[in-house]
């Protein structure tokens, strides 16, 4: 099926206007990487919490030694061993309760985004479009015999937006 060429004297096509209240481009992380990040953050927090618990136990044992100076060292060692077991249990419990909140790697957000494509006689017709392509990209090869395009149209484009925010996740 052969398509009739677009006549140069044909009327210009209509202008196009597209409006988005909010447009968002999001790049998510790999699920395994998300779990690694969550594990790292939890482990980092748990190191500080374990040290805080150890210091609290040491302070309580110091106060207990003042009131009972004959407390056996075996009992103190047993309390520290119990603290280690409790720390492990708390870490496992926190891991099981932790929600894997997906924080995207990259988010680009446009609010009140508007695209306008204008039909312009300067871009109208195959010869003018090809001339513009060669003008914009003079290094690319273009055959002397020309090319056959199934669809070829040129438009003047305008983009407007009220706000454009780009966020990268920090590590």
Outline of the structure:
The chain is of the alpha+beta class.
What does this structure look like?
InterPro entries: Hobbit (IPR045167). With 171 residues, the chain is an alpha+beta fold. The two termini are 56 Å apart. The chain has helices spanning 31-67, 73-97, 126-136, and strands spanning 16-27, 106-118, 156-160, 163-168. It contains 3 helices and 4 strands, in the order βααβαββ. Strands 1, 2, 3 and 4 form a 4-stranded antiparallel β-sheet that branches. The chain is 43% helix and 21% strand. It has 2 domains: 16-27 and 104-168, no CATH class; 31-97. α1 runs antiparallel to α2.
Tertiary shape:
rod-shaped
Could you give the count of β-strands?
A: 4
Counted by DSSP, the helix tally is 3
Structural class: alpha+beta
Pfam families: Hobbit
Keywords summarizing the entry:
four-stranded antiparallel sheet, 43% helix, 3 helices, Hobbit, 2 domains
Topology summary:
Elements: E1 16-27, H1 31-67, H2 73-97, E2 106-118, H3 126-136, E3 156-160, E4 163-168
Antiparallel strand pairs: 1-2, 2-3, 2-4
């Amino acid at each position: 099926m052969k398509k009739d060429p677009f006549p140069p004297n044909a009327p210009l096509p209509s202008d196009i206007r597209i409006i988005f209240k909010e447009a968002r481009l999001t790049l998510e992380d790999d699920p395994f990487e998300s779990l690694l990040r969550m594990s790292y953050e939890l482990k980092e927090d748990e190191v500080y919490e374990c040290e805080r618990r150890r210091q609290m136990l040491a302070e309580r044992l110091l106060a207990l030694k003042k009131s009972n100076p004959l407390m056996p060292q075996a009992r103190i060692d047993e309390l520290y061993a119990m603290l280690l077991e409790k720390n492990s249990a708390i870490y496992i419990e926190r891991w099981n309760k932790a929600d894997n909140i997906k924080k995207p790697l990259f988010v680009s957000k446009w609010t009140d985004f508007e695209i306008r494509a204008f039909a312009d006689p300067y871009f109208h017709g195959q010869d003018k479009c090809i001339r513009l392509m060669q003008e914009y990209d003079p290094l690319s090869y273009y055959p002397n015999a020309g090319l056959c395009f199934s669809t070829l149209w040129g438009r003047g484009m305008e983009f407007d937006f009220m706000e454009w925010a780009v966020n990268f996740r920090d590590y």
